[in-house]
Amino acid sequence: MLALRHGPGIELFQFTAPDQKEPIRPADYGLQHFAVYVDDIRAAVAKFEAAGGAMLTDPQPFMFGTEEGDGNLFCYGRAPWGSTIELVTYPSPMPYEPTTPLRRWRP
Question: Which of 2, 6, 35, 70 could tie 92 with a disulfide, CB 3.0–4.6 Å?
Fold first, then answer.
């Protein structure tokens, strides 16, 4: 985890799997995707599509119990140049917060 002084953190992962292919999914080599925090995920989806992006999923609740919360959502889209971009919003506190002082970066 790289923490930038006046901005977001950058998480770098190295995955290995016996069936790795071209960079398409998290277990593949290369830049798989990057995430952008948004305040209004539905408005962000509309702007993303208006700019030529194509949504791959609808906004949906986070999949892990430690991230659940009212309005905590994510979705994926394909940028016009081919990169996968994740839109995330987490306006509600996450269940892990009472157990640690660590927090996800929030603008």
Answer: 70
- Let me know if residue 57 belongs to a domain: yes
Tell me the three state secondary structure of residue 53. coil
User: Given the structure tokens 């991230």, which residue do they identify?
Assistant: 67
For 48-79, how does the pLDDT look when each residue is reduced to its tens digit (9 = 90+)? 999 999 999 999 998 888 788 899 999 999 99
Check: CB of residue 91 under 8 Å from CB of residue 72.
yes
Domain that holds residue 78: 29-107
Residues 6+ apart with CB under 8 A from 9: 1, 2, 3, 105
Nearest to 31 by CA among 74, 96, 81: 81
**pTM of structure:** 0.70
What's the pLDDT band for 26 if we cut at 50, 70, 90? low
User: Residues 22, 27, 33, CA angle at the centre, nearest 5°?
Assistant: 75
